[in-house]
Amino acid sequence: MKHARPLVLTTLAASLLWLSGCDGNAANGATQTAAPQAQADAPAQAAVPVGDAIEGLPFASSAIATFNEPWAIGFLPDGSVLVTEKNGVLKHVAMPGGETREISGVPTVAYAGQGGLGDVKPHPQFAQNGIVYLSYAEDGEGGRGAAVARGRLDLDAGTLQDVSVVWRQVPKVSGNGHYGHRIAFDGDGKLWISSGERQKFDPSQDMQSNMGKMVRLNDDGSVPDDNPFAGKGEIASQVWSLGHRNPLGIAFDSQGRLWNSEMGPAGGDELNLVKRGANYGYPIVSNGDHYDGKPIPDHDTRPEFEKPAITWTPVISPSSLMFYSGTLFPEWTGNAFIGGLSGQTLVRVEIDGESAREAERFPMGGRIRDVQQGPDGALYVIEDGKDGRLIRLAPREG
Questions:
Q1: pLDDT digits (tens, 9 = 90+) for 326-373
Q2: Domain membership of residue 148 as a residue range
Q3: Which of 165, 182, 307, 354 is the Cys-Cys partner for 194 at CB 3.0 to 4.6 Å?
Q4: The Glucose/Sorbosone dehydrogenase domain covers which part of the protein (predicted)?
């Protein structure tokens, strides 16, 4: 029997809705047409009033701007922000004022269920090359799948130019859930992508598919020669680790180690230290069970699979992951922060070697879709859904 960890949710209704670990977007909704791209000279959107955004937090919070179904935050070197909206819109946000404008040239997205425009990350050398990476769901032969494209951002023109796809999920399948598709770069400039198993279970263990995997590539999408399965097939060569379900957070700690947060099934959300060539066991093992109540053996029953550093039952529905390295909150240096959808929380995690423990939860009063550290050392979160706010969290004055 799986043992539940105590969890205080904002409402009882939220607890019942989120027990399954779903991110709350219907997995098989009807296809919707992506919003048309704005013209480069479209007027900037006015910022929302800045003021106290969330009561009762141990830090000051201020709302910067609002968005329609925002999914990810990507800071540029000048301190401005790129924000993706799931229906296929990319916006640039001036800081600190919060004036927004739309960026044209974004690839066409398959906007349905959990699918649409996803993550956004500037290239590590963005100041020199202007390259930005986007993940998104796309249509194709056999159904849908995640893709990652890169293009050159021209802020003066408000356009993304010379866009090319550098990676795709294989194969494309039916359904609109569990794309994963978070993006990260390591200290060597390698491109990392979290690839969900698309609610198909078995691909997580199938090395002929890159679904349910952590993928490591060069920045142009080519495969590094030192990947753990290099030379074992075109798809297998991309893979760094396998046995994942719906990994919606990936981030590197101060030692350069990759961690991921992922949604479990009915229970068993996870935080994992991602190791070279490791198998994390899904769907063979999980600390959650299937939605229909059918049990899944716990990780403890199969020691050949890598165990999570933390599991959550009831779930938090982890949407995102970052490690804090700033100076505004020196007591949190090296801590991980996880955005919680169902719990409507920001979860702080302390790391000790290869172990981790939940240290604190901050009730945010809304579903947190992404959390990032800004160049100013503040924490920035963005809320899920319509009218989702970009919020800055900083120490209280005095």
A1: 999 999 999 999 999 998 999 999 999 999 999 999 999 999 999 999
A2: 59-395
A3: 182
A4: 67-392
